[in-house]
Amino acid sequence: MSSPILEGRALVKSYDDGRVAALRGVDITIEAGEYVAISGPSGSGKSTLLHMLGGLDIPSSGEVFFRGSRLGTVVNLDTYRSSQVGFIFQAFHLLPTLRAVENVQVAMLAISGRANHRVERASALLEEMGLKDRMKHFPNELSAGERQRVAIARALANDPAILLADEPTGNLDSVNSANIMEILHGIREQRGMTLVIVTHENEIAASAPRHVRIRDGRIEA
Amino acid sequence: MASQLSFTGFAWKNLRRRRLRTLLTLCGITMGIGAFVALVGFSRSFEHEWLRLYQSSGTDIAVLESSLFNSSLDESLGEKIKRLPEVEAVAPLVFNLIDLTPDVNALVYGWPANSYEMDSLQFTSGRRFSAGQPQVVLGDLLAQNLSKKVGDTVTILGETFTITGVFHGGTALETGAVIMPLDQMQNISSREGKVTAFHVRLRPTPAGESYANYVARAQKEIEALQPGIRAEAAAERAGNNQIVDIAHAVAWGTSSIALFIGIVGIANTMAMSVFERTREIGILRALGWKGRHVILLILTEAAGLGFAGGLLGIVLGYTALRILSIMPQTASVVSTSISPIHLFESLLIAIGSGLVAGAYPAWRGARLSPVEALRYE
């Protein structure tokens, strides 16, 4: 078996001085190249767990390890997010003032590199997403499915090892949902990336080789 | 080729997003820098014109009373100064800023008819005045503003004077000035036997001694002649005289206030911008942007506003200075010459103002928690 790429140990996240707990001691290990679906009802803590695995949020207690190194101490969170993780959000989170191709490039501005390389890579990724004719469109000129494909291209911009998707089909109709899931599966298979999807859709959760259920901040057995 | 995105390009797009607000902010900083360019440029050109005035006449030292305003010295002191071995020539003078018409004022000088300073004037028409006569010569700009020519008369403090010549002055202070015989000027300003200052031309610097040393030595000897007087080197005098000092103080004071208002405008814009873009900053942080990248982006926007405001301010300030230089009320003391250093300084101040104004919003933006920012509605 390959070594874990991500490991969360005894993860606790609480708010309001401990009065509200989003996570109550979660242990999770994810192997490199694995495809994991995390599901659970609203408020169960699944997105909070994803944010911690992606270095977006820090646990109130507990630790997250990336390839055996602790996030936030050995591994700088910003560097981790820019080079090892690609995020895909339910609300797409594209920048409205930037064209599709610029939205992809903005992820690459955080790491050094030549401008022409950035634009070439962004164009290639958008082409891969079937958006060759949509590169110069602004987000408000794109359909929901197209926006999510731009967001996927942006998540892949820095060639991360892990793709973290938070309800990636939550704002899409069934046709676009199926299309986005097909793209994500294709990316994982072609690139051997680790894919973690948070979803409340049973069909998507069932399609993953590993399905983790979370309820009231705890992983169900 | 698809659109290439650079850091500055991204900052520019953010500024263009709220065009009206960006435009209004630009107006604020433009006014501030415009005031700085015009007022400080005005006071510096004023100082520069004084220096040129001394240099063109060959004056090395100016002798005045050690008082803040209204220097008044006995005319007889000139003879004592003249007897010093270093001194080649002494020119007593009385001067004042006087209203010639309700709209036009001018520097009016009283010079002896044989003053060495007369030699630096180039007469375009007519001739010098004669001692003891109610005659004047006018700078060409003033003659033009008053529509006067040789043979016409001009009334100064209730006395009528005949214009005997029009000269082309080398400086704005001369070109808009009136010069009359010293005794006439003393008479109309009730200063018989008194002068405002003496201009002193030294003999050539002795071999083996520096000009600065030579002037300093002469200054000491002149000051030793009589208590309560001060002898200033011409260059020093151009920068130190009270009118120039006041002009500098007013210019810096006024433009500092205008700049402060401009800085507050940029700070407000950047703070609003960071507040409105909270979620976007969260997205950037989620994409791996470090705090310093966010700081750099916001400071680039703020410095860009400062730079653009600086350029527009320079144009505005220069235009204001040009208008002042042709207005009859101010033409006698303003020239449009602005040094490249002053322009560079203005641009640096504008960019610096932007950076100062953007510092706090940038720091605030960088401190946003990515996940909190993403949740922001």
> Gyration radius of chain A, to the nearest Å?
17 Å
SS elements, strand count of chain B: 12
Strands in their spatial order, largest beta sheet of chain A = 6-7-8-3-9-10
Report mean pLDDT of chain A, rounded to a whole number: 92
Number of helices of chain A: 7
What is the beta-strand fraction of chain A? Answer: 25-35%
Radius of gyration based on Cα positions of chain B? 28 Å
Q: Which two chains touch over the largest interface?
A: A-B, 36 and 28 residues
The total number of structural domains of chain B is: 2
The end-to-end distance of chain B, rounded to whole angstroms, is 35 Å
What percent strand of chain B? 15-25%
- Main beta sheet strand tally, sense and closure of chain A: 6 strands, mixed
Give the SSE layout.
The complex is a heterodimer of chains A (221) and B (377).
Chain A: E1 4-15, E2 20-31, E3 35-39, H1 46-53, E4 61-66, E5 69-70, H2 77-83, E6 85-89, H3 100-108, H4 115-128, H5 144-156, E7 162-166, H6 174-191, E8 194-199, H7 202-207, E9 210-215, E10 218-219
Parallel strand pairs in A: 3-8, 3-9, 6-7, 7-8
Antiparallel strand pairs in A: 1-2, 1-4, 4-5, 9-10
Chain B: H1 7-17, H2 19-57, E1 61-65, E2 73-74, H3 77-82, E3 87-99, E4 105-111, E5 122-126, E6 135-139, H4 140-146, E7 153-156, E8 159-168, H5 172-175, E9 178-181, H6 182-188, E10 194-195, E11 197-202, H7 211-223, E12 229-233, H8 234-240, H9 242-276, H10 278-286, H11 291-326, H12 340-367, H13 370-375
Parallel strand pairs in B: 4-9, 6-8
Antiparallel strand pairs in B: 1-11, 1-12, 2-10, 3-4, 3-11, 5-8, 6-9, 7-8
Helix pairs in contact in B: 1-11, 2-8, 2-9, 2-11, 2-12, 9-11, 9-12, 11-12
